[in-house]
Amino acid sequence: MSLEQELKTEQVTHLDLTGFCMVASGTAVQDTLNAMRQHNVNVCIVTAGEHLAGIFTDRDVLGRVATHNDLLTQPIDTVMTPAPITVGPETSAAAALWLMDAKGIRNLPVVDEDGRILGVMTHQAVIHYLAARYPIEVQNRSPHPEQFPRKPEGGD
Amino acid sequence: MTTETLPLTRQDFVSNQTVRWCPGCGDYSILAQVQKTMPDIGFAREDIVFISGIGCSSRFPYYMNTYGIHSIHGRAPTLASGLAIARPDLSIWVVTGDGDGLSIGGNHMIHAIRRNINLNILLFNNRIYGLTKGQYSPTSRHGMVTKSSPMGSVEQPLNPIALALASEATFVARSIDAHTQHLGEVLLEAAHHVGTSFVEIYQNCVIFNPNEWIGLDDRRLRDENILYLKHGEPMIFGKNHDKGIRLNGFMPEVVQLGNGVSEDDLLVHDETSMQLAFIISSMEFPHFPAPMGVIRRVQKQTYTEGLMEQVKAAQAKKGVGDLYELYTSADLWTVTERETVKGKQTGALSLELDDEYMDEMEQKPEETTAMQDQLITPIATLQPRAPVSIDAAASLAKAIRQMNAHRVGCLLVTDKDDRLVGIFTEKDVLMRVVGLVDDLTAVPVANYMTPNPIALTTSLPIAQALYEMSIHGFRHVPLVDDDGRPEGIISFRDVVRRLKQNFN
Q1: How many domains does chain A have?
Q2: pTM of the predicted model, to two decimals?
Q3: Architecture of B10-233+269-297 per CATH?
Q4: Measured between CB atoms, does B502 come within 8 Å of chain A?
Q5: Could you tell me which CATH number the domain at B375-503 has?
Q6: How crowded is residue B356: how many other Cβ atoms within 10 Å of its Cβ?
Q7: How far, rounded to the nearest angstrom, does the alpha carbon of residue B301 sit from its chain's CA centroid?
Q8: Each residue of A109-126: pLDDT tens digit?
Q9: For position A16, which CATH number holds?
Q10: CB contact under 8 A, B26 and A30
């Protein structure tokens, strides 16, 4: 099966969708930053109850918050992207990836039909997928990229 | 005394040695995960030791920038035992394979485990002798055709997990080279366990046994075929979490959830149950999903703790002893020198062996898919964008202004000779700058960048860029010319464009 077919048959929920953290709507920007730092993630989902209210990423930090320290005490709702583009759990990985590319986004929340948050598809999840899918080419590389042995068994 | 105060990173554990494994060997992936896990285990670099025996996997200590011993065939557990008793403050890792650890070193292995010496034993299981070029090992399947079993192995393979359990191991776990996140988590759990941690790692021998883990190492199939064990949780598996393990008498069985079978009917994993651990160890893929994760974990006194208690008690009673006095109290005699016998070495044998495996080397390369071909094309074919650079002395405020003006998430930081000295990304802004720096105009970007970033040249394959992104969690990889000057930058988005072009 080609990668194209694979990515079409693979659902987004088969990827690792855990690379994000969550805060409730109304949380201060400073506390949101702290949560992202604690979880070491680039993406934060802002929730209203069980539902998605918005998304806040490192790009928003750079563009909207970095030079405005006065915003830190404001609620996250003032700087997040409200009602972001989402996909359902049945969406194929390929469709999700092309959607991300077309919309110029790197993080795509996955929600069920009742709008509950199932996870966030990130570029990092696709990178891990490709690495694990092609371990011989990608994962099992030498830590020294300039090194290329002349014999298939690694000797020279 | 700890000499390093800065938090360690994966790069601190990469040694300067040339890695000599076959390209595509699963050992690379394990090495990368071990190097990635080391900063998190809570030990200073000088308190970590890697000890190996003989075999492909046993080259490991060379590649770790820690203390290490490439020791005697099968005897890594013995050296490690001695060290663990003399220096209980160290984090000691034994790296061995199915040949080194279960053939010649089988006895050392079981006794180290049974004594519960504070070691982390990583057993790379590729079910073949790789270094000696393709003979069957103690874990090779019955009937497996190898160089030394042309009509199929007539031996029954060892079950390493069951062997460790029979040796009363206090920590037994399993993972696989290709599932890097899972492997990383298991390594961390092993590191935190006090006592012997035994980890079996399914590992791919790309040259001599490349098809051993089909169904488990394949990203498309693995979630269908691996049972991820979690303490206290029912044994559910499958890509869609729709299958489970139920106990029927003494026998485990695979059941489909639904149609009257609910989660309540399933076995619940219990890391403290020896009986359950043996049942899990008996579940062999493909008859069952391959169980992965922590199989058994209990706390017991370590050998060193028990021994030191006795030493203390004896010293309290008899006082501190004198080793020299003890040594000279026995009968002593002098050994006289004898004439040495000279050996005969022609070197002819090794040439014959070389011929024998030449056919292996001359095999036609496997057919590759279009995607695999794409992955090995040079990065240059992605037509990388020109980078946005900034001088190291520029202020943070200027850096952030530039990123926003150029709408980029990543700046390459250069010195006065225009050489790449660091990288500054939006993640750095998130993690280290916002709300933490009072005056952005007062501090240079150099204080907040990642110094000495990983940079590639455009002649390297795209796969290398994906590798760096996957290992380090980067989204951008800077490109430099031979003099270390920034030439371009690629992001994962460029790779996505390539995939898309390919498909349409």
Answers
A1: 1
A2: 0.81
A3: 3-Layer(aba) Sandwich (3.40)
A4: yes
A5: 3.10.580.10
A6: 11
A7: 27
A8: 999 998 899 999 999 999
A9: 3.10.580.10
A10: no
